[in-house]
Amino acid sequence: MSIIHGLTNSFKTQLLSGQHDLSSDVLKIALYSSLAELGPQTTAYSATAEVTGTGYSAGGATLSGAAISISNGVAFVDFSDVSWANSSITARGALIYNASKSNKSVMVLNFGIDRASSGSTFQVKFPTANKDSALIRIGG
Known about the structure:
Elements: E1 2-3, E2 6-7, H1 9-16, E3 27-32, E4 37-38, E5 61-62, E6 67-71, E7 74-78, E8 82-98, E9 104-124, E10 136-139
Parallel strand pairs: 1-4
Antiparallel strand pairs: 2-9, 3-5, 3-8, 6-7, 7-10, 8-9
């Protein structure tokens, strides 16, 4: 199986047609095992190969703190880091999706390795919000 990091193709076209509002829609992040098949072709959230375990509920967690900025002609969005406390889960990647828009996909994250928690906090830390490292950015 494979998890290919990046914005999904459907999100790119839907964004240009005004289907997503990252400042007000409810965005979620779901965690997936190494058995997941996620990438540019992913169009919506699916529970197939989603992680299971203590402290994690199907569908993942809601992203908060969405902040849209622009710097040197590059627009980007940042979210607050997300965590699952007292969890026992193993994940290879994640899907950010828009729960306000029929669970349409936004972005696939590949952690590069299986990351695990065992009765501890599992955290997804987002990179620095700037024109060079934010996960979701357009321009430049």
